[in-house]
Amino acid sequence: MQNFKVELDSDGILVCAFDTVGKTMNTFTKAALDDLMAIAERAKTDGAVKGVVITSAKSNGFCAGADLEEMLGGAWEAEGIDKSDPEAELKGAFAAAFEMNRVYRALETCGKPVAAAINGLALGGGTELVLACHYRVLSDGPKVQMGLPEVKIGLFPGGGGSQRLPRLIGAQAALIAMSEGKNFKPKEALAAGIVHEVVADDQVVEAAKAWIKTKGDPVALWDKKEFKIPGGGPYHPAGAQVFMMGNALLRKQSYGNYPAVINLMHAVYEGLQLPIDSALKVETRYFAKTLMTPQAKAMIRTLFFSMQAVGKGSGRPVGVPKTEFSQVAVLGAGMMGAGIAYVTAMSGIKVVLIDRDQAAADKGKSHCEDLLKKAVSRGKMTQDKAQGVLDLIAATPDYGLIKGSDLVVEAVFENTELKAGVTKLAEAELADTAVFGSNTSTIPISLLAKASVRPENYIGIHFFSPVDKMMLVEIIMGEKTSDATLAKAIDYVLKIKKTPIVVNDERFFFANRCFIPFTAEGLHMWAEGIAPAIIDNVGRATGMPRGPLEMMDDVALDLLVKITSETAKAEGANYIPIPGEAEVAKMVADGRLGRKNGKGFYDYPEAGGNKALWAGTKDMFPVTMSEADPAQAEELKKRLLYIQAVTAARCFEEGVITDPREADVGSILGWGFAPWSGGIISLIDSIGTATFVAELDRMTGLYGDRFAPPQLLRDMAAKGETFYGRFGKVDRKAA
Fold first, then answer.
1. Of 59, 246, 291, 723, which residue is least crowded by CB atoms under 10 Å?
2. DSSP state at residue 584
């Protein structure tokens, strides 16, 4: 056996320590499943075996689930399937998808008590494995969690989770957990009834053995004649309400964009009406159906495979030595600068936080202290650890303290002259090898680099707000930025546990350049007379986190007016005003700045409660569409998504971004582009370039040249190309 270390102790308990060959984390490869099947068979046939304990031999976790790369690559399929025969191919796909259920069920029905000693992270198929065990003991370690997060990559639990969890904790609790992809900490898992015991990490195996020796029951709850579903099944009065309410709730949360959520509901509803063996087959059918959807394929590629590659620095130049950072300086102690200082100190790096005077610098450090206090109050950090992080931050107006910094991140107000001034002050204290990074969100890096005496060391490091929560960092190459500088910037971003994407210089770069058209299209609709409520409701229905108008409120209307003013100044006669732009400026002049002061497109109650659309919106543009039928709503959704996607295509044509993986990951992490699509480029590929171009031509005729497809798209459509086919590339990360 290659993937399990197996030992029969003196009490007849077979302790099986999971240790996947060649993997840093345990995952179920086909070989590992074969080994688990052999364990089940030995337990069933070997009289010396009185019970089985499943645990992990790895220190970093119990099991992260199925090996998706291997499973989706066809390694689980039986040999000799005639794929030209649709029925044979369907049977083969079912058999491959059923493999985990087949093995787990064999373990569950081996006739001997099986206990799981969960000594680390257990997710997806790892949690499904322990649900198939008769008893579950969980370690109380600080990083231990368990859950079924498959919905986050476009799937739902397909290894028995959709059937066992509802039978264990009830349909309502299970559906909420699975549809949200919720992870449970040890005490939460115990309170929910998912595990039987929570003990210290070094006691999990002994506790599992103790149960086998004293109470060991080899029959699962759902295999007992007297078993009843907690809370009732689909035809129980209480259970029926769960599914009626659940349908409405899931529709409200997902807007029908996620087939996985819909198929999960089907699998649970139908499966709970059947014995467990039949229910597992129902689950597999819906799982296979989900796996074949464009949404699942795109989400798995982007949110699993691409996220891993980009998160490891796929854009890093090969052959450049790794940089370790001892000190970083942050210029500007506002919310953005303070957030950057916080995440930098959290990674163990000393920070010099600079502002115009001591009071301003101290205010930034105070923001860091507030974040640390919140972490302590929520049990995420000890007071000593929080104080240690805070002690790494030195707040000062003294630029002399920058001396010795490996990196400077400038986060002052979006003004070219101001940024030039602080650049000169900082560079006077820096070594020749230090990197200067600007957190600008709109101004071209090559323009800002003109103030630098070392433009080859100058780079854009664009964070997203709030910095402590947003995972994306956009790294922007200037005309003269060196590969060594790029490598250092990526090393820094990885050190602070963020996800870097690399883009080339252009006003607004990639993220803001694609996001701004989303809010601008909302203004176009407003000016056309479409009711603001429709605009934002349709915006959320696309899968975006907010509608375009409420998103503008969140960003701050006065900031958007300033950005517009800077852009108009830079573009001069080429600048084309957006309908509604002047009206937003008037709102700002009248003191409506957005969420931050409680009034923008919406009014925000001071004492909490729900926001409400400002009545004055209808006075600026008369409403001509107060209700939208399904066809109209679909067209509005298409406008909001396609205007972003065509902008991304232009970015590829101009070389602003060159890797589809980074574009997709960046679009989801950076501004919340509809995750169901797999990202902004996956959306185009799933539509098909020819179909996409045809729709853009139609929309250009109706709404204007902002929808006009670039020549790149026309060329790709003529050749039947996809972005991943044309621009796909291997990692540039150094070995």
1. 59
2. H
**What span, in angstroms and rounded, lies between the C-alpha atoms of 325 and 327?**
6
- For β-strands 602-603 and 612-613, DSSP reports them as antiparallel
CA distance 294 to 307: 18
**Paired strand residues for 604:** none
Residue 463, SS3 per DSSP: strand
Task: Please indicate whether the domains covering 4-297 and 327-508 agree at the CATH topology level.
Answer: no
| β-strand partners of 138 | 118, 198
Closest to 430 (Cα-Cα) out of 401, 393, 455, 461: 401
Cα 229 from Cα 210, distance rounded (Å): 28
Angle at 200 between CA 197 and CA 204, to 5 degrees: 60
Instruction: Please state, in angstroms and as integers, the Cα–Cα distance from residue 653 to each residue in 165, 504, 723, following that order.
Output: 48, 12, 11
Alpha-helical regions (H) of 181-275: 186-192, 204-214, 237-254, 259-271
Strands 114-118, 13-18: pairing kind? unpaired
Half-sphere exposure of 283 (CA within 13 A, CB side): 30
Gap between the Cα atoms of 397 and 182, Å rounded: 44
Q: What are phi and psi of 586, to 5 degrees?
A: -65, -40
Which residue is associated with the tokens 């498959």?
150
The beta strands (E) that lie in 155-223 are given as: 183-184, 197-199
Nearest to 131 by CA among 95, 156, 157, 152: 157
Cite the active site residues. Answer: 462
Are the beta carbons of 159 and 150 closer than 8 angstroms? no
pTM of this structure: 0.92
The tally of CA atoms less than 13 A away on the side-chain side of residue 349 is: 29
Q: What are the tokens at 371?
A: 């974040």
HEC-encoded secondary structure of 489-551: HHHHHHHCCCEEEEEECCCCCCHHHHHHHHHHHHHHHHHHCECHHHHHHHHHHCCCCCCHHHH
What's the rounded Cα separation, in Å, for the pair 58 and 18?
7
Nearest in space to 6 (alpha carbons), one of 130, 41, 100, 144: 41
DSSP per-residue letters across 375-434: HHHTTSS-HHHHHHHHHTEEEES-GGGGTT-SEEEE---S-HHHHHHHHHHHHTTS-TT-
b/e per residue 422-457 (b: at least 16 CB within 10 A): bbeebbebbeeebbbbbbbbbbbbbbbbebbebbbb
Tokens standing for 416?
């070219």
State how beta strands 458-463 and 472-477 pair: antiparallel
Alpha helices by DSSP H, listed for 98-150, are 99-108, 125-131
CATH architecture for segment(s) 327-508: 3-Layer(aba) Sandwich (3.40)
* H/E segment holding residue 13: strand 13-18
Average pLDDT per run of 10 along the chain, which is 735 residues long?
96 98 93 97 98 95 93 79 76 88 98 97 97 98 94 96 97 94 96 97 97 97 95 84 79 86 95 97 95 94 95 93 97 97 98 97 97 93 96 98 97 93 97 96 94 98 95 97 97 98 94 96 97 97 96 93 87 90 96 95 88 93 93 97 98 96 97 96 97 98 97 98 87 39
Place of tokens 């464009």: 294
Cβ atoms within 10 Å, residue 294: 17
SS3 state of residue 184: strand
CATH 3.60.15.10 given to domain 4-297:
no
Q: Which helix (H) or strand (E) holds 274?
A: none
The 10 Å Cβ neighbour count of residue 24 is 10
- Exposure pattern of 596-619 as b/e (b: 16+ CB <10 Å)? eeebbbbebeeeeeebebbeebee
Q: Mention every residue, 6+ apart, whose C-beta is less than 8 A from residue 313.
A: 490, 491, 494, 500, 733
SS3 311: helix
363, two tokens: 């205010």
The residues spanned by each domain of the chain are 4-297, 327-508
Alpha-carbon Rg for the chain in angstroms: 28
- What stretch of H or E contains 529? none
